[in-house]
Design a protein that fits this description.
It is built from eight helices and seven strands, in the order βαβαβββαβαβαααα. By secondary structure, the chain is of the alpha/beta class. A five-stranded parallel beta sheet has the order 2-1-3-6-7, with helices on both faces. The chain has a two-stranded antiparallel sheet with strand order 4-5. Helix 2 packs parallel to helix 3 and helix 7 packs across helix 8. The longest helix has 15 residues. The radius of gyration is 20 Å and the shape is elongated.
């Protein structure tokens, strides 16, 4: 029996695992979730710092900008986009992932424009977070297990136009070439899966 040379073994090239700086900032106002995710990421070798507000997150970035960040979109004192923008301004190589319980294409695009590398819907587990943080910048993401349905894509588009119109139902209906009452019924319903 011969030993295989380590260079002959297949390697997962979609992840960056050999990092020197694994400092991680977690920003979320859901304290139990923040504690669970913090412990799970520490077990994966990250040096975790936590913050429960935009203000605390910005202070942590100013104190020492981490290599990685996981930031909730909606916090009690503002939006996590401010933390991502400050982090990217302080450290261009930092990799941030946005988390949200309110999946919305518009905010996902805004997060990426401000420097986030990925956008995950809650509840995201530590494996998903780690995969997003360590994904190679040039690697294509895995196809989603549960992609959005056509109804959900339509709903997301309507929500985006509604937000861009300043939440004005009449203007949104006009731009979408839709009857105002039909739009009101769609907006009153929960988002489709």
């Amino acid at each position: 029996m011969t030993m295989q040379d380590s260079t002959d073994l297949p390697r997962d090239t979609s992840r960056v695992d050999s990092l020197e700086d694994k400092s991680l900032l977690l920003v979320d106002d859901d304290q139990p979730f923040l504690n669970r995710l913090g412990r799970a990421m520490e077990r994966r070798g990250f040096e975790v710092r936590t913050a429960s507000s935009v203000g605390e997150g910005l202070a942590e970035v100013r104190r020492a900008a981490p290599a990685f960040a996981v930031v909730d979109l909606r916090l009690e004192d503002g939006t996590g986009l401010d933390v991502v923008q400050a982090l990217h301004g302080a450290r261009e190589d930092a990799r941030a992932v946005m988390l949200t319980g309110y999946g919305n294409i518009t905010t996902a695009v805004a997060a990426v424009k401000l420097g986030a590398v990925d956008y995950l819907a809650k509840p995201a587990d530590a494996d998903d977070v780690e995969a997003a943080l360590l994904a190679r910048p040039d690697a294509l993401p895995e196809p989603p297990e549960n992609p959005m349905s056509a109804d959900r894509v339509r709903w997301e588009h309507i929500q985006r136009v509604y937000e861009l119109c300043g939440r004005n139902v009449s203007e949104t209906a006009r731009r979408l070439n839709m009857h105002r009452r039909t739009l009101q019924r769609i907006l009153a319903k929960r988002s489709p899966r």
